[in-house]
Amino acid sequence: MTEPTTTSDPRPPAASRKNRRRHQAARIVDGTTGWKLMLLKIIVLSILCATAVYAALVLFMNDRWLIGSLVVVGAAALTWIYLQRGALPAKYLAPGLVFLLIFQIFVVLYSGYVAFTNYGTGHNSTKDHAIQAILLQTQDRVPDSPTYPLTVTESDGEIHFAIINDNGEVLIGAEEQPLEPAEGAVVDNGTITAIEGHHVLSFADLLNRQQEITNLAVPLEEDLNAGYLRTQDGQRAYLYTSRYVYDENADTLTNSETGTVYRDTGEGAFIAEDGEKLMPGWRVNVGFDNFVRAVTEESIRGPLIYVTLWTFAFALLSVATTFILGLFLAIVFNDRKMVSRKYYRLVMILPYAFPGFLSALVWAGMMNQEFGFINNVLFGGAAIPWLTDPWLAKLSILIVNLWLGFPYMFLVCTGALQAIPDELTEAAQVDGAKPFQAFRMIKLPLLLTAIAPLLISSFAFNFNNFNLIYMLTGGGPRDVSAGVNVGSTDILISMVYKVAFVGARADYGLASAFSILIFIIVGTISIMAFRKTKALEELN
């Protein structure tokens, strides 16, 4: 009689596998997962600390003490978290918290800070830089000034001027570095041939960087009134002085030709007694002046009120039209008697599948007054100004937004309708209610309760629907009478963008003040809407 053969299972027993997983989990929690992972951790943390130290030094050199200190503290905290044993939740949460602080909280706080400054075109730097810029912009060559044989060098990507003074000493300087003795300079037959830590530019290099060299002005001394060295050919330098003289003790700039004195009055610029300003200025805190300007200056207040009303109308009409069309289509395609309804549903969500900004560009082409598909094909060559007439442009935006937004409402309403039991409608019809009455009295209230938070979020989204406005009309047509860059179809967010970044003058302070107003408006409306619909209690 032969004994039955047995085959061994190559897998370890279940208990052994479970114990192995427990040991692996324990090692992960304890931080003892092997020298390779520890080495990788040390390398990553070393790179992080090195980057943080470099960033902190740059910030400290630019007098950004608070931000630099936060960088150091943050890097130290991350290093401590990832080097200690355990603390597994902190190790998972730390990266998310860092990105939240950098890309959300810092941006909000910095925008709030800018709203209380005059930051913008002409006021985007410090007072020292403004003084230097004014002196540089008003320079004239000193008559009969000596000619300095010049050697142009480069160090760490920065252009330097090197000369030999009357005492035979080699001096070198850069844009923000006055002339000082050069170390390790080599002079051959009265020409500087080498300087330690610098690369002497050849004639070909001078030609390639001609504009950069001719625009450079190197101060002679710490006192900027002493003048600057400038060159036109990279071979010879001449002395230039500004027609304005800066008095550091009196903190004034005086025009040497007219004698006009310009003083720092605390407004971020040097101003004469007759109100004339010297630009550029510098950034200063102005308190609530930007908010006061927004509500008191007629050239700003009028467009702000108009844009605010249109923003509310646009957001409300967009939500209403997309919801009504989406609900209608959801009811139609929710009928089980319809044949091939899944294919119809697929077609309905196609506008939602394409990027919104591309769809807006396509619609902008189709609505072109002269060459657009709508005018040439649908209206037989009519020249209808869809995007250039103020009211037609508003209508065009609502039509395009309806095309882009109804698929989302269709999907939401379809899901909500399918979640409502059919027994409720059938019971109402048994009691004598007509189909429309059953829908209005039973399904619609349940539907609104379910999608109320989505309607509120859709309102907030359309309130800040920058892509559609910018891609379709650019906010136009332009309102030439307004004191800010604004058009007939601009909403608040697009107006903020234009005030900050479009046009010859950018006013970041005023734009940030508008942003705070938008935040207050949207937040207040959202809170009121949530309380009205009791959606928060439903979510909880």
From TrEMBL:
* Topology of this chain in the membrane: Multi-pass membrane protein
Please tell me where this protein is predominantly located: membrane
Q: Which Pfam families does its entry note? A: BPD_transp_1 (PF00528), TM_PBP2_N (PF16296)
Q: List, alphabetically, the PROSITE patterns matched.
A: ABC_TM1 (PS50928)
Keyword list, A-Z:
Cell membrane, Membrane, Sugar transport, Transmembrane, Transmembrane helix, Transport
Keyword Cell inner membrane tagged:
no
PANTHER family xrefs: MALTOSE/MALTODEXTRIN TRANSPORT SYSTEM PERMEASE PROTEIN MALF, MALTOSE_MALTODEXTRIN TRANSPORT SYSTEM PERMEASE PROTEIN MALF
Q: Give the family, as the similarity comment puts it.
A: Belongs to the binding-protein-dependent transport system permease family. MalFG subfamily.
Q: What does this protein do?
A: Part of the ABC transporter complex MalEFGK involved in maltose/maltodextrin import. Probably responsible for the translocation of the substrate across the membrane.
Q: Where is this region: Disordered?
A: 1-23
Q: Which organism is it from?
A: Nesterenkonia flava
Q: Residue limits of the ABC transmembrane type-1 domain? A: 308-529
Q: Which SUPFAM superfamilies match?
A: MalF N-terminal region-like, MetI-like
Provide the protein name: Maltose/maltodextrin transport system permease protein
User: What Gene3D superfamilies does the annotation carry?
Assistant: D-maltodextrin-binding protein, MBP (2.40.430.10), MalF N-terminal region-like (3.10.650.10), MetI-like (1.10.3720.10)
Q: Which residues cross the membrane?
A: 37-59, 65-83, 92-116, 304-331, 343-366, 395-420, 441-461, 508-530
> Which compartments does it reside in?
Cell membrane
